[in-house]
Design goal:
Residues 2-163 form the Hydroxymethylglutaryl-coenzyme A synthase N-terminal domain. By secondary structure, the protein is of the alpha+beta class. It has helices spanning 19-26, 30-37, 51-59, 88-95, 113-127, 198-220, 237-247, 253-267, 270-273, 280-291, 325-336, 343-351, and strands spanning 3-11, 15-18, 41-43, 71-77, 103-107, 132-141, 154-164, 169-179, 185-186, 195-196, 229-232, 299-306, 310-318, 339-340, 359-360, 370-376, 379-384. The chain has a nine-stranded mixed sheet, sandwiched between helices. Strands 3-2-14 form a three-stranded mixed sheet. The chain has a three-stranded antiparallel sheet with strand order 15-16-17, with helices on one face. The chain binds 3-hydroxy-3-methylglutaryl-coenzyme A.
Length: 386
Amino acid sequence: MQIGIDQLAFYTPKTYLDLVDLAHARGEEPDKYRIGIGQYEQAVIPVTQDAVTLAANAAVKVVNETNRDQIAMILFGTESGIDHSKSAAVYLKRLLNLPDNLRAVEIKQACYGATAGLQFAHDYVRLHPDKQVLVIGADIARYGLNTPGEVTQGGGAVAMTISAAPKLLNLDNETAFRSEDIMDFWRPLYRTEALVDGRFSENVYIDFFKTVWLDYQRQTNRTIADFTAFAFHLPFTKMGLKALRAVLPEADAEQQKQLKTNFEASRQYNRRVGNLYTGSLYLSLRSLFDNAVLKPGQRIGLFSYGSGAEGEFFSGTISEQFDAQQSRQRFSEFFSSRQQLTMAQYERLFSQQLPDHDVLLDVTHDDARFVLAGIKHDQRQYLDRN
Ligand code: HMG
């Protein structure tokens, strides 16, 4: 039985910063950001969007009348949670009007949370092939103004439905993972911005990638020759390029060319949105599906990394029903309709934080269907403006 990703949608707000403007403002060469880091633009998230609304705006694209009653679980990966106790998944369930007889929980392990959700969903659907699981990765990546991490900020959400006979990717059963207590990136409960040991985090990422890739090959007897493309967690797109370069020498010249071309396809969306933490790998997969020339049956390798740290290499084959046409069209319309911010507008939006008392937010500048309208009696007030 084939099980995997049936639908994969993405949402990010329309406001963005051009990183050439950021480079000028920070006294850096634009090429450092565009080539050295591999990022062109960065999504800027208004205060009227949080992990729940980002997720709802993505999920509404994959939940419809045909699958609504099949969804048995929401697994919500995030490291931008809005409550220490109550899960973001329960809010999401209400906003999507899903029935009460489902499980709704939040999963946290830095950028790895959505992959944990995907693998748990894979196992669940194997036991219950008539059911679907809604897997979310929703985050806002914040390092702070004037920090080295600033150029790698971003945000948004991916929503995936995991089912039997999926339309996009059939997941292979074999997977290789590793976890280790490492302080490369973390965010204590009292902080809204992450702390990071930048270079060290890059080294741990590569180290984890090499280890799980080797372990995967041992388990499966597959080699690089079995792969048409790799999709990586992309905190910034140069990171994925560094990982790809670590394995390219294992391929012959012809295949190296194919893997590089497909890597370019896989980073097109990410380099214009930035890091969305849990969603980044899956945004890259969406970008690959939409911008590469792929055929049913071809195998894709996926590397998920969450600081702290957890890494996993797994794979899947393109479904017979695969068709990326419509999605490609929607994304090109989306990117051409975004609103570019000046540095002053970016810094103002970035610095707007929710107060810890009741507040009514101005939602007129946010065109999303789901918005955060304020806080009342310490409870977030969400609006569905459909
Ligand atoms: P930095 O110190 O500003 O940059 O920090 P740099 O000086 O290292 O330069 C970056 C690259 O630009 C270098 O290339 C330079 O040579 C190049 P590299 O050696 O890396 O190949 N460069 C130029 N290239 C072309 N033209 C030029 C030029 N000038 C320089 N003129 C850093 C960069 C990424 C460390 C920083 O932005 C940062 O700390 N970011 C956040 C941490 C991060 O994203 N880590 C990634 C791995 S950890 C991870 O993926 C998990 C994460 O997503 C969180 C989670 O799991 O929740 C972050």
